Amino acid sequence: MGAYYDEIEIEDMAWDDEKRVYHYPCPCGDRFEISRKQLANYEDIATCPSCSLIIRVIFDPLDFEDEPSDEDEPSESEEEEEESDSEDEEFVDALEKLKVSDEPKTVQAAA
Ligand SMILES: [Zn+2]
Predict the structure, then answer these.
(1) Residues 94 and 55 both lie in one domain
(2) Whether residue 64 is found in the same domain as residue 98
(3) Ligand 1 centre from 3 Cα, in Å?
């Protein structure tokens, strides 16, 4: 091994929620795919099912290593972790929206 078609950062790949794989367009018209499970196993090679090309995926294994594998277990613990993450983000979003909608009111009250 060692001859990768390209090296792609995980941020530049797209997530397929149905197949639960990250994918990236392959020049043959199909796409390179790598599953979250592979990433959790420190595998960084995404393969194209239609040709022999491979790419190396640049990612931080720490972002994936807590993920229980989708297929072996029911997803209870996984859902809990993902929810707590997104709650934080939603909270920040809500704060930002509050600030934005506060401003015009303040201006009107002063005028
Ligand atoms: Zn291909």
Answers:
(1) no
(2) no
(3) 15
Q: What pLDDT band is residue 61 in, cutting at 50, 70 and 90?
A: confident
CA of 47 to the centre of ligand 1 (A): 8
Query: Same domain, yes or no, for 10 and 59?
Result: yes
Choose among 46, 9, 43: nearest CA to 31.
46
> What integer best gives the mean pLDDT of the chain?
78
Enumerate the β-bridge partners of residue 106: none
> How many structural domains are present in the chain?
2
**Is the domain of 60 the same as that of 12?**
yes
10 CA to centre of ligand 1 in angstroms: 18
Find the domain containing 85 and state its range. Answer: 74-111
Weakest mean pLDDT among 20-24, 43-47, 101-105: 101-105
Does the pTM exceed 0.70? no
Q: Ligand 1 center to residue 61 CA distance, Å?
A: 25
Q: What is the pLDDT of residue 64?
A: 83
Pick from 36, 37, 19, 31: nearest CA to 55 = 31
**Cβ atoms of 10 and 34 closer than 8 Å:** no
